[in-house]
Write a structure and sequence with these properties.
3 helices, mainly alpha
Amino acid sequence: MGNIKAGDDIFFTATMAEVLEKQGHFEDALMIYKILADTTPWDQTLNYKIERLKGLAERKRKGPAKGA
């Protein structure tokens, strides 16, 4: 995953995931959303955010597109 490790002093909330996403830490935000989705499976907005972040994280891993 990203930079978050076990033992880090971090709150696993949607707000923290949003902050990380805005900072470009897509994989860390994705991990938090997945944890939240596991604990609140009735919240369908989390599934939408997870799918969207998967794409953003993948693009970031691949780097800039050629010609960009």
